[in-house]
Amino acid sequence: MAQSAPSFKALMQSPTMLLAFGFGSGLAPKGPGTAGTLLGMLLFVPLLLCNETVALILFLVGLLFGSWICGRASEQLGVHDHGGIVWDEFVGIWLVLLTLPDQSWGYWLLAFAAFRVFDIAKPWPIRWADQRVTGGFGIMLDDILAALFAIGFIWATTMSLNLLF
User: Fold this and answer.
1) Is residue 3 predicted with pLDDT exceeding 80?
2) Cα(96)–Cα(73) distance, rounded to whole angstroms?
């Protein structure tokens, strides 16, 4: 039987659950994925501006351990890809932010919007991966694919606009 979301107090007692629930952002009553994406972005942008190498390392570590973090939280909750598990949104938006043509407010807003659109709409093959790939890897995979779609959209848009102007 699936469990409801843990309390913030319960998150504070488990580092894995605290990370999986995005430091509590996944407890948002409406749009936990959007809240997780926003917090992930707000935490990552200053680091990215200060030291791109450290930001890249954080992304790689987050990606490497993300399957385990998400899988472990999913097992503890008794439900695959609980809506409050937002570590995958953290890592997904980090990937988009790392690959932007420029680090600016306009691109950050575009990154946020594009990532959320692709993560929510889940066009093929994102929806396929979300429905068929299980475990922590499956939880992470659909957000990595959404990030890749967002990156493609941002770069295609940028290149098209550069050709026009």
Assistant:
1) no
2) 24
